[in-house]
Amino acid sequence: MSGGFAGNFSFRGRNGVRVVVAGDRGTGKSSLIVAAATESSPENVSPVLSPTRLPADLFPDFVPLTIIDTSSSLESRSKRNEELKRADAVVLTYACDQPMTIARLRSFWLPELRQLEVKVPVIIVGCKLDLRDEHEQVSIEQLMSPIMQEFREIETCIECSAATLIQVPEVFYYAQKAVLHPTAPLFDQERQTLQPRCISALRRIFMLCDRDMDGALSNAELNEFQVNSPPPDGFIVPAEIVGVKRVVQEKLPDGVNQLGLTLTGFLFLHALFIEKGRLETTWAVLRRFGYDNDLKLREDFIPVPSSRAPDQTMELTNEAVEFLRGIFRLFDTDNDGALKPSEVDELFCTAPDRPWNEAPYEDAAERTALGNLSLNGFLSEWALMTLLDPLRSLANLMYIGYSGDPASALRVNRRRRIDQKKHKTERNVFQCFVFGAKNAGKSALLNSLLERPFSNSHNTSSTSERFAANVVNRVGGNKKTLILREIPEDGVKKFLSNKEFLAVCDVAVFLYDSSDEYSLKRSQELLFEVARLGEESGYGVPCLLIAAKDDLDPYPMAIQHSMRVCRALGIEAPISVSVKSSFLNNVFSRIVDVAEQPHLHIPETETGRNRKHYQQLISRSLMCMSVGAAAAVFGLAVYRVYAARRNTSS
User: Fold this and answer.
1) What is the pLDDT of residues 458-468, one digit of tens each?
2) Of 393, 359, 398, whose CA–CA distance to 379 is shortest?
3) CA–CA distances in Å: residue 91 to residues 21, 88, 263, 303, 483
4) 554 closest CA partner among 585, 588, 520, 523
5) Which of 40, 107, 327, 338 registers the highest number of CB atoms within 10 A of its CB?
6) 30: phi > 0 → left, psi -120 to 50 → alpha, else beta; which?
7) Record's superkingdom (predicted)?
8) Which residues in 444-467 are b (16+ Cβ under 10 Å) and which e?
């Protein structure tokens, strides 16, 4: 069950729960608080109390609770609103002997919370239960059901009496429970079903506990599950496990089979816990397996190295890549070498979200003519996600059942500066920034990396970044992943204002339309700007010029101008391509070639050369001074030895 069990859970980062009590004047707010704090009937209560703290040992989760009393007066509205915005939960009171205060919940207090955007659990509390008219037979369910239907943020309703101490402790128990074990992430009360994220999390837990992968939890697996996730109200002994399975089977025949409790039965069992008000049981399971209140794995449960230099990137290890190859084969049920959207959805059914349904991933990988994800596209999506968001990548590996040590799934690459000094790199994933003027052909180049046919209809005025990732086959069967990052011309100035912008770039290409003089001029300007930033920041990057649209007639002097620039900067001659005529000139393999030689093809401006020459002169001068100083010290030492011997002989 590697990667599944989170150890002993504590409410991380939470030193207590803050509950704000609000309601109309005279509804019993302050008396309720005093009764809860003193466990006695209150007398001569102040209109508004100072913050009251209930100790941790009063609650089963051992978390202390602070109660904030508020005034309902108009003059205190601003202060009350500030307190409400800081609340973990809100208790709204009405008086059982004053029906008008119930109506005010609906007409003022609940709309007020929505207007303030207070998005926390709300507990409705009827105070002064002892004063209710004995002839009034309306139940709290009948009274509150219409209000709860309208205001879904209401967690529960309860009536109490501070005078007789009836159900006073329960008020704040439910308030704390609503914060520590909230209903909304787990259960859709309107549809009376588990929430999609809750189902995904429980499916993953079921998968991790199903050690023999037979689709059912045997008695032994259920017992081991209990050991790893002890129920808040104690263990279920083997005889009781049989009873639990019997209950599930009676309610849901396919919830149990001859092998044990099925996934359907496992989900039903937790829905039953929630419906019975035992949310803490389901939350205990989820938290033991690393989930937070948003039903995502907690960051402290995902071992991503936090300390990295700006020019260090991360990529998947060979072990993780092999796991993904196996997962691809497992979910490619029709063995056609590609995953349909439905198969991708099934693969990520144990994750809280589908990670590739949004930018920059949704249009970044190779797909078949039918829109299915090829193996290269699948692995490239993972490589891109690991490069851009290692935490998210590792979390999704764990969601889909990565069985190895999560800490072994990612590798921190060596600093690019060190690669340049050693004249080699160990990276398998290279990021290439694509610069160029509008309409130079940047989008067409990205599409060609994804094996997509040329189209004149693509958007040429995009002002947003775009990524394309694919596997590039190398000589000898070696494979590298190339990630092209299109830098929109309108955003260049903003990007280059960041001194560390080039740190993660392995190679930069500058695209120009070979038939357009302005396009070449603009790409050369961008090349010089990037070269200067590299020299100033210390993150110099190998560069290439690409002459796109080679099927068109070049403007006069285009070749001479571009060659002169390349010679001046000390980089390779421009690579001519025509995406339209499918003449790519092996451009992607050549980009990888440049990335694999991080010490070459780094442009050097005149200013950079002068600075380098000056630094060399300084270094030589310092070396000469050091040698001279060493010689002087050595000479002085020899003289002292000579003088000492002369004195001795005389």
Assistant:
1) 544 556 799 99
2) 393
3) 5, 10, 38, 39, 53
4) 520
5) 338
6) alpha
7) Eukaryota
8) bbbbbbbeeeeeeeeeeeeeeebb
- Which one is the CATH code of 193-296: 3.40.30.10, 1.10.579.10, 1.10.238.10, 3.30.830.10? 1.10.238.10
Which pLDDT value is given to residue 484? 98
Beta bridge partners of 543: 508
CA 474, distance to chain mean position in Å, is 33
Domain ranges, ordered by start, for the chain: 17-180, 193-296, 301-413, 418-604, 614-649
Residue in 479, 468, 459 with CA at minimum distance from that of residue 434: 468
The sheet with strand 543-548 has its strands ordered as 466-473, 479-486, 429-436, 507-513, 543-548, 575-576
The CATH classification of domain 418-604, taken from the options 3.40.50.300, 3.40.50.720, 3.60.15.10, 3.20.20.150 = 3.40.50.300
Say if CB 460 and CB 443 are below 8 A apart.
yes
Q: List residues bridging with 547 in a β-sheet.
A: 512, 576
Tell me how far apart the alpha carbons of residues 470 and 588 are, in angstroms, rounded to a whole number.
Answer: 10
Q: Is a pLDDT exceeding 70 seen at residue 517? A: yes
Confidence of residue 429 (pLDDT cuts 50, 70, 90): very high
Tell me what the mean pLDDT of segment 440-447 comes to. 96
| Torsional sign, CA 628, 630, 631, 635 | positive
Query: Other C-beta atoms within 10 Å of 474: how many?
Result: 13
The residue assigned the tokens 């994220």 is 197
433 DSSP β-pair partners: 485, 508
What mean pLDDT is reported for the chain? 90
The token pair at 182 is 């909230």
Q: How many CB atoms lie within 10 A of CB 55?
A: 11
- Residue 147 backbone phi and psi in degrees, to 5: -70, -40
Task: For 261-282, give the DSSP string.
Answer: EEHHHHHHHHHHHHHTT-HHHH
Query: Nearest Cα to 433, choosing from 591, 639, 229?
Result: 591
| pLDDT tens-digit readout, 175-221 | 999 999 999 999 998 888 999 999 999 999 999 999 999 999 999 99
Q: Helix (H, G, I), strand (E, B), or coil: what is residue 34? A: helix
Amino acid residing at 132: R
Please compute the mean of the pLDDT values over residues 115-129 and round it to a whole number.
96
The three-point CA angle 479-484-490 to 5° equals 175
- What's the rounded Cα separation, in Å, for the pair 519 and 456? 18
| 257-284 pLDDT per residue, tens | 999 999 999 999 999 999 888 999 999 9
Q: For residue 396, give both structure tokens.
A: 């999704």
Which tokens go with 386? 């690991």
Class of domain 301-413 as given by CATH: mainly alpha
Report percent pLDDT > 90 for the chain.
78
pTM: 0.85
What strands, in cross-sheet order, belong to the sheet with 260-262? 216-217, 260-262, 256-257
pLDDT at 6: 44
Band of residue 457 on the pLDDT scale cut at 50, 70, 90: low
CA distance 229 to 282: 10
Higher pLDDT, 457 or 200: 200
Q: Determine the Cα–Cα distance for residues 349 and 200; give it in Å rounded to an integer.
A: 6
Strands 507-513 and 429-436: parallel
Say how far residue 495 (Cα) sits from the centre of its chain.
23
Domains 17-180 and 418-604 share a fold: yes
**Cα(482)–Cα(366) distance, rounded to whole angstroms?**
12
